[in-house]
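haha ok so turns out i had the wrong file open the whole time. this is the CORRECT one, sorry everyone. sequence first:
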Amino acid sequence: MVAKILECSTAVITKEIGEEQMKLRTSVIGILGVIGLLTALGGLFAPTSILSDDKLGATTLSNLRAYSGAGVVMALFALYSLSRKQFQDTALIMLIISLGGWNIGQTISYFADGKPDTFTIGSIVVQALLIPIVWKALKSK
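then structure:
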């Protein structure tokens, strides 16, 4: 009887922990997927407005739209993985790689090109803080 009670309580605790870990995974993927999609769509359709710079040349605009297009696809994949659990690890790894890449690029630009605006500095900090959160979500199964 005691063994059966312990078995049932262990199953309930394990289920609750599993649900909590799944909530972290889906929350991280969902929030970053939506933010990434909105940011990428802005860069795709209105890069000069997003950057507050009307003097960008055709090559720069083309590159911004290309990176934004890739961002749209990655964000859509992340959001798609919410309905396909087998793709969630891939989506989280992709988020870690893209956050890390953006952070490295912006940090190098900070030192190579000079101090950017306050928004970009804040973006560097937020991206750096998000990487361990996404890593924790990846490891929570």
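The two ends are 31 Å apart (CA to CA).
again sry for the mixup
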